[in-house]
């Protein structure tokens, strides 16, 4: 990803208030949620030109990582709604990225691959493993092995030359913007993958790394005293330049760390469990930053928004998708730490209703917009907007879905022919 250092103003936002019937989402009705999610999933997939047998890159302006993120959103769609229409396309897209060493260092995408991009595909690969998702190609290892390979590749780049450790944002010198930056999403991605692999395998190496990456992140102040996850720090300055006043913060980083902490709480016992549960709760409390406090305007309290950019209309293409991953991981967190369910449901269900009422754009009057705290459709109808609404709405169904699998419940490789 390559946004932080150049937050460019987006094109002037257009406000289109559709005269169509607002999408009314009845969050207490599974059928209503499934049907709204189905429409938004269709909208999401309209950006993808691949087939059941062939991967195709997303068109500009969408980077390679966003395709990985999209396949993750669609995996969630399949799992939460039970609609398997897109499964083969999703699986084909995922395994096509494995690369010669089966670690998602895809030579074709090297120009667009930083540690965070690889981690995003990693989230998707582990989600496939945790659901025994069918795997379409016998010449490629199963999802769990792919996920472990991604983890090893990230671990090999842990860099102690500055800042006492940490992953840099970029991998290749040919992507100089970000080589001297250690950021929350790369390290948070590595942290969350460590936690999930610890849960899946029970291997202590992953537990140790989850602790190490967490401690490093707090040590730099990227997770600050208020449990706000800030964007990153400069390795050229030995990570001494991070501050809430000058460093932006994005919802997805908060969500990525929250889920990692929740998974650690779930697999820990005794004092460790208390410690990780406390961290999960503090991260969630701090997430309140990403929900509107504007109670006096259009009843919009507790509606999710990207506070670094959204209300001033400068979110770029990547940023408009962040609310989706934030929702994904905050919903997933309540499965790991059930005591946070009331808070999660209050925030995300309110946001889901608000998101749905804005899905009135495009020629069919169903495309979702950028801002949810205003009446009707507002902003653009891009892929990020669809994914953000999709994850926030379909996540309502998470309590009815099987929790992520672990241990021997994860089967090595399931093919499509034997699965349906
Ligand atoms: C960089 O910061 C770390 C603490 O984060 C410190 O241990 C180390 O000595 C610092 N290095 C330099 C060269 O200042
Ligand atoms: C634990 O995981 C690490 C990292 O993937 C690996 O090197 C090691 O072999 C694993 N240990 C066991 C006992 O599987
Ligand atoms: C806010 O909610 C109240 C009570 O549900 C309703 O009467 C009022 O019309 C709403 N205001 C707006 C601007 O939607
Ligand atoms: C861990 O997560 C499972 C769902 O996978 C849940 O049933 C269980 O209560 C959680 N355990 C703890 C200690 O919170």
From TrEMBL:
Transferase listed as a keyword: no
InterPro entries per the UniProt record, alphabetical: 6-hairpin_glycosidase_sf, Glyco_hydro_76, Mannan-1_6-alpha_mannosidase
Keywords, sorted A to Z: Glycoprotein, Glycosidase, Hydrolase, Signal
GO terms under biological process: carbohydrate catabolic process; fungal-type cell wall biogenesis
Molecular function, one GO term: mannan endo-1,6-alpha-mannosidase activity
EC number(s) recorded for this UniProt protein: 3.2.1.101
Enzyme class, UniProt record, top EC level: hydrolase
SUPFAM superfamilies linked: Six-hairpin glycosidases
Catalytic function, reaction form: Random hydrolysis of (1->6)-alpha-D-mannosidic linkages in unbranched (1->6)-mannans
Family: Belongs to the glycosyl hydrolase 76 family.
Stored PANTHER family: MANNAN ENDO-1,6-ALPHA-MANNOSIDASE, MANNAN ENDO-1,6-ALPHA-MANNOSIDASE DCW1
Name of the protein: Mannan endo-1,6-alpha-mannosidase
Organism this protein belongs to: Neurospora crassa (strain ATCC 24698 / 74-OR23-1A / CBS 708.71 / DSM 1257 / FGSC 987)
């Amino acid at each position: 990803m390559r946004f932080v250092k150049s937050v460019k103003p987006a094109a002037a936002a257009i406000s289109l208030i559709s005269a169509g019937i607002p999408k009314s989402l009845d969050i207490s009705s599974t059928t209503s949620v499934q049907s709204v999610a189905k429409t938004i999933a269709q909208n999401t997939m309209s950006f993808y030109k691949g087939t059941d047998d062939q991967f195709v890159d997303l068109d500009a302006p969408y980077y390679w990582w966003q395709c990985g993120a999209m396949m993750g959103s669609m995996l969630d769609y399949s799992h939460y709604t039970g609609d398997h229409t897109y499964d083969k396309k999703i699986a084909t897209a995922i395994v096509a990225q494995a690369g010669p060493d089966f670690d998602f260092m895809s030579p074709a995408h090297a120009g667009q691959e930083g540690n965070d991009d690889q981690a995003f595909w990693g989230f998707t690969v582990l989600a496939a493993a945790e659901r025994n998702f069918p795997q379409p190609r016998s010449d490629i290892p199963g999802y769990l092995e792919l996920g472990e390979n991604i983890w090893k590749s990230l671990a090999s780049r842990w860099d102690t030359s500055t800042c006492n450790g940490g992953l840099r944002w970029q991998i290749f010198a040919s992507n100089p913007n970000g080589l001297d930056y250690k950021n929350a999403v790369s390290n948070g991605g590595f942290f969350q993958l460590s936690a999930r692999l610890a849960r899946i395998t029970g291997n202590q190496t992953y537990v140790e790394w989850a602790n190490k990456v967490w401690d490093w992140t707090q040590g730099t102040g990227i997770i600050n005293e208020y449990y706000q996850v800030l964007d990153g720090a400069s390795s050229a300055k030995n990570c001494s330049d991070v501050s809430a006043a000058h460093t932006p913060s994005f919802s997805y980083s908060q969500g990525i760390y929250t889920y990692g902490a929740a998974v650690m709480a779930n697999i820990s016992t005794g004092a460790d469990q208390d410690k990780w549960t406390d961290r999960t709760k503090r991260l969630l409390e701090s997430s309140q930053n990403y929900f509107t406090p504007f109670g006096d305007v259009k009843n919009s309290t507790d509606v999710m928004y990207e506070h670094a950019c959204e209300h001033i209309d400068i979110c770029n293409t990547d940023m408009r998708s962040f609310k989706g991953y934030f929702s994904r991981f905050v919903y997933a967190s309540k499965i790991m730490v059930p005591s946070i369910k009331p808070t999660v449901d209050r925030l995300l269900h309110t946001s889901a209703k608000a998101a749905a009422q804005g899905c009135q754009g495009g020629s069919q009057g169903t495309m979702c917009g950028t801002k949810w705290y205003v009446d009707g459709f507002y902003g653009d109808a891009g892929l990020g907007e669809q994914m953000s609404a999709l994850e926030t709405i379909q996540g309502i169904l998470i309590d009815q879905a099987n929790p992520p699998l672990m241990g021997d419940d994860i089967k090595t490789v399931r093919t499509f022919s034997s699965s349906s």
